[in-house]
Amino acid sequence: MEHASVPPLFNVAICGGTHGNELTGVYVVRELQKQKMEKVGSVSITTVETNPRAVAAGRRYTEMDLNRCFTDVLLSSPITESTPYELRRAQELNAQLGPKGSAEAVDLLIDLHNTTSNMGLCFIFYSLDWITLHIYKYIQNKMSSMPVRAIQLDIPISNAYSLESVGKHGFAIEVGPQPNGVVRADVFNMVKEAVDLTLAWLQEFSSGHTFEGGTVEAYTLVKSVDYPRDSAGKITAAIHQDLQDNDFKLLRSGDPIFLTFSGETLKYEGEDLYPFFVNECAYYEKKIAFHLAQKKTYSFPSICVKKD
Amino acid sequence: MQVDEPVLLPRLSRVAVCGGTHGNELSGVYLVREMLKTQKGKVDREPASVLMVLSNPRAMQQCRRYSDTDLNRCFTHATLKCLCPSGPISEGAPYEIFRSRELNAMLGPKGSRAAVDLICDLHNTTANMGLCFIAYSDCDWICLHIFKYLQKQMSDTPMRFIHFDVSNKESYSLDSIGKHGFAMEIGPQPHGCVKSNIYTAMKEGVEHMLNWVGCFNSGCVFEGGLVEVFTMVKNIDYPRDGETRNITATIHPHLQDRDFCLLQPGDPLFQTFSGETLTYKGNEPLYPFFINECAYYEKGIALSLARKKCVTVPSIWVQAEEEERTSERSFASEEEE
């Protein structure tokens, strides 16, 4: 079987509150800070509440979505008086945890999010690197009582717009369903366990353990579908009850997707694909009712830390 | 009063259906918009006229609960009269205070003969409450009969009647403007989202209510019976950090989503973020509701608790016009007092 030795991971950043009303990450980060989690084995841990102003306001963001501010272009744009708060904050975070693409960047960045969609626990990442895939596989095996899935966004790193792209390796942990502004204990426990398992994996990796390779299924984003809207841009339908809460259940042509407010059913036309982020509250303004993905299988080698 | 003789009540000539009182509770927003589209505003829906109102357009536009202050706390007599009725509002006044005066002029004035006969104010909650009526009275036979009728028509929908024992003087919400009124609260739905099953339940609830009003006004006798009522007793806040006031725990997994399941002393109540279970320390078993309602974190409410009782609702019948004029005269003399 194929095997790879990879460079050691010295530091990890755990981030929460990137969207100020996605509360699980806020409270996980605060709890880690309370427990003074600064090191696990030889790996040092940084915990960051990334958007404190949005958290204080109980809103996703104050001026612009922080998690769209991390493209190379935006990170290098000059700061003026009119620069939105979140863009300034992105550049601060890039200085603290990056710079993105450089040797100084944190080895692993984990960003904690919630969704109103029934997605269970999802890893979201840009690139299928082996560190991320191994951590995902490890967590999926250990948290076998709940759905744990992987979503890949096929975007080159320079265009990658979210916080986790700042680290040498990075992924978002997205857990739902949870309403914005609410913290549910079951979701909190799930995320805390995933974070604890990630730290356990890092410790084992650093102490020389070899992790077996294998295959993993991931959902790759293909396209998005918006709500039907009227001439004023207001939505005229809600997600149909047959689709609601059925993230990752294969959607076929002819399946209901919307129920108009006057009671009419609208159906899906297109290739068989897997919906996710179904009825995510924050995406109404981004004109997304749901995303559609293909499922792909990826294989990866066994790995262990490279010894000097 | 003989047990089998119906109570005579005045006809309900004007009914208001309000949505968007909280701008991010979207089922009511889209339902009222849809009804405005199909019924084109104030329409004679024989034999009552129905007003559709979007209560807080600014909050709706921002998709927030409120712009400056919670509109649904602005309808006490004191708040409605705190500014000179004929004078201009000071520039710094919260938008919702201004709007509550407009709504009081449109649907009230509260406490007067001109007020609409019935207000149904549409709300959503993140709590797993199914469909609830929330009213200030446990003996407003109109509201209780509408509830009883909906229970029968929508027998698959979990439905409860919640009574807030607040005097007319202290009543603070929009539905208190009308001669009769209640909030129709449906969950669970995240704020800022619309779920089709919740929207559909609200749509059906409102349609059945309007059908009931039509039948009542046309002279149907509605048989009395027993209705279970949950009377609010107290609220419990989250445990909080002494300095920052940040919450240090959240609703325990065993309690989450179990609205209206009896909570016994010693039952798990909260789970701290460090994993400890805190239990309910009350003396009596009570029924929890509004468990983990998003908007109540800032109001210091993790859950509300109620006692359950059975209310005997009499049969009712619309009052004939002669009798209505007699009772109006006595109403007028009460007003003058």
Characterise this structure.
The complex is a heterodimer of chains A (308) and B (337). Chain A is built from 6 helices and 15 strands. Chain A has helices spanning 23-34, 52-57, 72-75, 85-97, 130-142, 185-206; strands spanning 3-6, 11-16, 39-40, 43-49, 108-114, 120-125, 148-152, 169-176, 214-225, 237-239, 256-260, 265-267, 274-276, 290-300, 302-305. In chain A, the strands form 3 sheets. Chain A has a 10-stranded mixed sheet. Chain A has a 3-stranded antiparallel sheet with strand order 10-11-12, with no helix packed on it. Chain A has a two-stranded parallel sheet with strand order 1-15. Chain A starts with a strand and ends with a strand. Chain B has a 10-stranded mixed sheet with strand order 3-4-2-5-8-6-7-9-14-13. In chain B, 26% of the residues lie in helices and 25% in strands. Chain A binds chain B through residues 27-28, 30-31, 34-35, 58, 116, 177, 179-186, 188-189, 234-235, 238-241, 244, 259, 261-262, 279, 281-282, 284-285, and chain B through 30-31, 33-34, 38, 63, 126, 188, 190-197, 199-200, 246-247, 250-253, 256, 271, 273-274, 292, 294-295, 297-298.
Strand order of the largest sheet of chain B: 3-4-2-5-8-6-7-9-14-13
Rounded mean pLDDT score of chain A: 95
Please tally the helical runs of chain A, counting DSSP H or I stretches of 4 or more residues: 6
Poorly predicted ranges of chain B = none
Radius of gyration of chain B: 21 Å
